[in-house]
């Protein structure tokens, strides 16, 4: 009789590609259960670069990072913390469609730890990112443990002159004065966002 081995999941494979590899970006949201689709791509962050490859119908994409701070181990899977995943994903928004997908994900998350988001923002320390994160999370104030003091802290470290949320200038139809951002129209109601 032939012994059957346990087949590792795509997440187990991903976080073992390099010594410090971990699941990140949309793959982290998928791991946490906050997407409404299954992806055949796994974004793997690591200080050690590797060549992208496909195995068992999944493509493993390398994202080189400087360190592994704000990474957690959940059921033996190394994954970016939820706060890090949110901030990194906001930083990675390039198009209206990216933002729409991200807002759909944010609407699925039952609770966001605003203190952890702020701690990670301080670590990254990008002025425009304070404004982008603050703008998006301002629509979730009080719902997700996002307090006015936290948003004020983001404003304090945010942009001093107006900038664009993305390079899609033709689609940025609203100026959010508090955040100094030209952005897409974002509704205050979570059910009606974008």
List the defining traits of the structure above.
194 residues, alpha/beta, 4-stranded mixed β-sheet, 3-stranded mixed β-sheet, 7 helices, 36% helix, globular
The count of domains is 2
Q: Report low-confidence residues grouped into runs of 5 or more.
A: 188-194
Proportion of helical residues: 25-40%
Q: How far apart are the termini?
A: 57 Å
Q: Give a quick account of the main beta sheet: strands, pairing sense, barrel closure.
A: 4 strands, mixed
What is the radius of gyration computed over CA atoms, rounded to a whole number of angstroms? 18 Å
The total strand number stands at 9
Give the number of helices.
Answer: 7
Structural class: alpha/beta
Task: Please report which band the strand proportion falls in: under 5%, 5-15%, 15-25%, 25-35%, 35-45% or over 45%.
Answer: 15-25%
Mean pLDDT: 90
Strand order of the largest sheet: 1-2-4-3
Identify the overall geometry: globular
SSE sequence, one letter per element: HEHEEEEEHHHHHEEE
Structure description:
This protein is of the alpha/beta class and 194 residues long. It folds into 2 domains: 7-80, no CATH class; 82-194, no CATH class. It has 7 helices and 9 strands. The chain has helices at residues 10-14, 25-32, 82-91, 96-108, 114-124, 127-138, 148-157, and strands spanning 22-23, 41-46, 53-55, 58-64, 71-74, 77-80, 163-164, 174-176, 181-183. The strands form 3 sheets. Strands 1-2-4-3 form a 4-stranded mixed β-sheet. Strands 7-9-8 form a 3-stranded mixed β-sheet, covered by helices on one side. Strands 5-6 form a two-stranded antiparallel ribbon. The longest helix is centred in the middle third of the chain and has 13 residues, at 96-108.
């Amino acid at each position: 009789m032939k012994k059957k081995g346990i087949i590792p999941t795509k997440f187990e494979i991903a976080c073992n590609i390099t010594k410090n590899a971990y699941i990140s970006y949309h793959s982290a949201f998928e791991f946490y259960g906050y997407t409404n689709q299954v992806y055949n791509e796994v974004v793997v962050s690591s200080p050690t670069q590797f060549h992208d490859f496909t195995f068992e119908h999944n493509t493993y994409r390398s994202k080189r990072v400087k360190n592994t701070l704000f990474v957690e181990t959940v059921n033996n899977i190394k994954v970016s913390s939820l706060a890090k995943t949110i901030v990194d994903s906001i930083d990675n928004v390039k198009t209206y469609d990216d933002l729409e997908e991200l807002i759909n994900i944010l609407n699925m998350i039952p609770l966001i730890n605003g203190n952890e988001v702020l701690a990670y923002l301080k670590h990254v320390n990008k002025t425009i990112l304070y404004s982008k994160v603050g703008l998006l999370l301002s629509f979730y104030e009080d719902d997700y443990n996002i307090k006015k003091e936290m948003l004020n802290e983001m404003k304090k470290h945010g942009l001093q002159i107006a900038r664009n949320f993305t390079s899609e200038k033709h689609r940025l139809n609203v100026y959010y004065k508090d955040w100094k951002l030209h952005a897409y129209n974002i509704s205050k109601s979570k059910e009606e966002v974008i």
